[in-house]
UniProtKB/TrEMBL annotation:
Keyword Transmembrane helix among record annotations: yes
Membrane topology qualifier: Multi-pass membrane protein
Domain ABC transmembrane type-1 intervals: 72-261
Pfam family for this entry, one: BPD_transp_1
Source species taxonomy: Bacteria, Pseudomonadati, Pseudomonadota, Betaproteobacteria, Burkholderiales
Protein name in the entry: ABC transporter permease subunit
Keywords of the record: Cell membrane, Membrane, Transmembrane, Transmembrane helix, Transport
Coiled coil: none
Length: 276
């Protein structure tokens, strides 16, 4: 096929991709638009696409009256702590399952993979009872315990760590390097793409988590942003514009995080899927 024949096809494909992207982004764009509308403006039929006069009143009300700043900081602190804990536990376990030899390694890993089919909601009741016996209910420690390690995170790191040549690790051992130094100086730099991928997953999971903080936290001052917005929506059920402003505040940090780190995220997923 000639170059002149492939050019129109490329244009059609690109136009179709742009259309699909716009359709996927339309709810997000409309939500952002509604957040700048005046009170009651979005309730008209048909709903307007753009505000008649953009205003920051909804955002100012959220911070001034609803105290959304406190809940934003609560969620940010918990998400960062959950990300650090996830990296510490999942990276160490994933590397151990990939490159270290110990009794029952493969059998334990298969059991972990089998547990992936169990829904997380099933474990919430026994986990809550354990947290209650340990006195961790209504504390941030109780919120962070389930986020400290995940089977999916261990699996993700293990699959990527399998691509590290064994000869490289053996050469370091022959030079007298300890296992900790090998892990710190050789393994961690090589795992950088998957570390970013895991960090994104962990941050997103903790930031968007609604059910577990709702169960564990009873003090309103400790609420995370999703729980606070759900509570606020019951009080302002007709105030669509302010609720949309709260939704924008919830989505904006994770969207910016993904856009900044998307190159490492995609690289981690692609390279980690090469070897099984």
């Amino acid at each position: 096929m000639s170059a002149h024949g492939t050019m129109p096809r490329r244009l059609w494909v690109n136009a179709l991709l742009v259309l699909c992207a716009l359709l996927a982004m339309f709810p997000l764009l409309w939500m952002t638009s509604v957040s700048f509308m005046a009170h009651g403006e979005a309730s008209h039929f048909p709903p307007p696409l753009l505000p008649r006069q953009a205003t920051l009143a909804n955002y100012l009300e959220l911070f001034a009256q609803a105290g959304i700043g406190r809940y934003f900081l609560n969620s940010l602190m918990l998400a960062l702590a959950a990300t650090l804990l996830s990296l510490a536990f999942n990276v160490g376990a994933g590397y151990a399952f990939a490159k270290l030899r110990f009794a029952g390694r493969d059998r334990i890993f298969k059991l972990l993979l089998g547990a992936l089919v169990i829904p997380g909601q099933v474990a919430m009741l026994p986990l809550f009872l354990i947290m209650k016996q340990m006195g961790l209910v209504n504390t941030y420690v109780g919120v962070l315990v389930p986020a400290a390690a995940s089977i999916f995170g261990i699996f993700l790191v293990r699959q990527y760590a399998l691509t590290i040549p064994d000869a490289l690790l053996e050469a370091a051992r022959l030079d007298g390097a300890s296992e900790f130094r090998i892990f710190r100086s050789i393994v961690l730099p090589l795992l950088a793409p998957i570390l970013v991928t895991l960090a994104i997953f962990s941050f997103l999971g903790s930031w968007n988590d609604f059910m577990w903080p709702l169960i564990v936290l009873t003090d309103k001052d400790l609420y995370t942003l999703p729980v606070a917005l759900a509570s606020l929506s019951r009080e302002h059920v007709q105030d669509n514009e302010m609720m949309m402003a709260g939704s924008v505040l919830t989505i904006l940090p994770v969207l910016l995080l993904f856009l900044v780190l998307q190159r490492y995220y995609i690289q981690g997923l692609l390279v980690g899927s090469v070897k099984g």
